[in-house]
Each structure stands twice: as C-alpha cells, then as structure tokens.
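Predict the 3D structure for this chain.
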Amino acid sequence: MANVTSADSATESLHTAFNGDRVVNSFPRHDVVKLDDAYIRWQQQVKLILDGYDLLGFLDGTLNSPSRFVQMPEGTLVPNPSAQIFRQQDRLLTSWLLSTISTSHLPSFIDAQSAYDIWTMAANLFATDTGAKNNHVFGINCIP
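Done. Predicted structure below.
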C-alpha cells in the first residue's frame, strides 16, 4: 500500500481544487507494462493505479495547482503550503511515470515538467499510431 499522509489545505476552486488532506508519499512497486508500443495497455494500467490513489486529476489536468501565495489577514503574501504539497505530489507522480516508459522512448519526454505533460505527450506520440493499428485490425476482421 502507498504511504499516505495528511496535511492542511488552503485551496482555490478552478476545475477541481487540490486537497492536500491525502498525499501519496511513495508508490509501492507496480508491475506496469512499459510504455513502448503497448500504449493502450500502459494507459489502462496507469489510469487504474492512479484512480486507486485518487490522482487522476494530475494526468488529465482537471486538478489545478493552488496559488503559490496566499494573502494573510494583514495583507502580506506568504507561500501557500498547499501549493508546495501539490508540487511535491506532481513531482513524485512525474518521476514514477517516467520510470514506466521504455528507455528507447525516454528522449521524447525530456521536456516533460509534470505528470500532465507526460500524459499528453504519450497520447500525442502513441494514440494516433494506436488508432491506425486498431483501424487496420478492425478492417481485417471485417473483410468478407
């Protein structure tokens, strides 16, 4: 099971507000299919695992980072602890996702800065090709 801790959260609502109450500090080892040409299987496994940890919003962009700063009652701006927790959570997830990508494809993800970046880059790199393969298989199965 993952190591989960609690933290106070001061969040704002954009899509879905980040709630720092449940933070995953480490992932146990999961035997995930490496992202190579098995994109659909990789995507399914990653989604199921992250859904189990309630982290899908990091992948699809529906979970937005809290503001970096919050205003105190006296008007001063101070760093928002929830923003730091969000960043740490995203960095952990980003690192884990990179570990699930085959070595031959890692150079394609060199500019990835977040879990969302990796997810969208993978979709852009593999989904079109996967769709073409699925259409080819469907076409073969439909030959009279």
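Helices lie at 39-52, 56-60, 81-99, 115-141.
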